[in-house]
Design brief:
Elements lengths: L1 H6 L3 E3 L2 H9 L4 E3 L7 H5 L3 E3 L4 H12 L15 H15 L1
Parallel strand pairs: 1-2, 2-3
Length: 96
């Protein structure tokens, strides 16, 4: 699955988990459901909810091809949380 995510152009899914994985692999996602738990992905435009409508799915594929994912906002931090927590703990400990 990781290989597929790395090498695909667009993700089409009805899976909740795969929507977020697509984001982490910088792939536009088309979600064939009527709702999602990852509304922040829809709000930033990297995930489109289209339901099961054939025309909506095809239109979403065309739109996803035009998506500039590089401009997508970082939604989940920079991956440095553990370092920041450790630094804060060490600073707290040395202040004691």
């Amino acid at each position: 699955m990781v290989w597929l995510l790395e090498h695909c152009e667009i993700v089409l899914t009805d899976s909740g988990g795969l929507q977020k994985e697509a984001y982490f692999f910088s792939k536009p996602c088309i979600t064939m459901r009527d709702q999602t738990e990852w509304v922040e992905l829809v709000n930033t435009g990297v995930n489109q909810l289209v339901g099961a409508d054939k025309l909506a799915i095809l239109n979403a594929v065309d739109a996803a091809k035009a998506t500039n994912f590089a401009q997508a906002k970082s939604l989940y931090g920079n991956g440095e949380a553990a370092k920041a927590i450790l630094a804060a703990l060490l600073e707290f400990e040395s202040a004691q």
